[in-house]
Write a structure and sequence with these properties.
Ribosomal Protein S5, domain 2, 2 domains, 6 helices, 33% strand, globular
């Protein structure tokens, strides 16, 4: 039986502060018709510009994924919300914001999952459409550390993600999961974003992390984690990286069917890989 596209059953309103801008945003998630995709709308700007969640609209990848149109960044840090939508299989949604960044909440995707489940999920009378690879694709970068991403054609979506940090509290971590709504909710969605304490001053100087704190990020020191809350998983760091790539990959515009192997990547590498995937589908 063919899978159907999904949206949400009813509108739900979310309010919270953004991670990097620190701005308070009221955001409405609204049902959208089949084949409309994921669309962000800035209702506070003249003309209420619509920003489709597509890789061609990526404006910046500095410590998060920012999208916009006409050369103007309009929505910062979209990856956690997009990850929740990809993980739950939501194909069509209108996201209406009165500011420039979705709430960060606790630094994970779990609050978005809870709001979407509160709204309910509606199956639409249209077949689900996928990005299906024609051949294996790969990406490699050697800028600071060796980054590798490969994908092979598959009938499902599986990711094998590994990270390597020269730090005793992180070290080498790896996770491999078949991505389904169940595994996303239980194994990925609660993993929080993280940073090192020595980065915070530089982030603030660059106008970033204005809304950040121990309530919405795991802050790693030289020999301790500063948060009072314990890690939610032994390998929470790599699980959050997995969460990030699931969100960034949704900028393909459709869910991906492939088996991925990812090593030491970040948002810039994720989006470069998305471009390679789309290039591989031409012709």
């Amino acid at each position: 039986m063919d899978k159907k596209q999904k949206t949400i059953l009813k509108e739900v309103t979310i309010k919270g502060r953004g991670l990097h801008t620190g701005n308070m945003t009221k955001m409405a998630l609204k049902p959208a018709p089949a084949n409309s995709g994921i669309m962000f709308v800035r209702k506070d700007l003249p003309g209420h510009p619509v920003i489709p969640a597509l890789f061609g609209n990526v404006m910046s990848l500095l410590r998060g994924t920012t999208i916009g149109i006409n050369g103007t960044p309009m929505v910062y840090t979209v990856e956690h919300l997009l990850s929740a939508l990809n993980g739950l299989g939501i194909d069509n949604l209108e996201i209406i914001l009165d500011n420039n960044e979705p709430p960060i909440f606790d630094g994970s995707a779990r609050p978005f999952i809870d709001y979407i489940n509160k709204a309910g999920i509606l199956e639409l009378d249209a077949p689900k459409s996928y990005i299906v690879l024609k051949k294996p694709v790969s990406y490699m970068s050697d800028e600071k550390i060796r980054v590798e991403i490969t994908a092979v054609p598959s009938d499902d979506f599986k990711v094998d993600y590994s990270i390597e940090y020269d730090h005793p509290l992180i070290g080498t971590q790896r996770i491999e999961l078949l991505i389904t709504p169940e595994t996303f909710i239980n194994e990925i969605s609660s993993a929080r974003t993280f940073c090192f304490d020595y980065e915070i001053e530089t982030l603030h100087k660059n106008g970033l992390a204005k809304g950040g704190g121990l309530h919405n990020a795991v802050v790693v020191g030289m020999d301790k984690i500063h948060n009072l809350e314990k890690l939610r998983y032994d390998n929470e760091f790599v699980r959050h990286k997995l969460l990030d790539i699931i969100g960034d990959l949704y900028l393909l515009g459709k869910p991906l069917k492939a088996h991925l192997k990812v090593k030491c990547a970040g948002h810039k590498h994720h989006i470069n890989f998305v471009k390679i995937i789309m290039e591989s589908l031409k012709g």
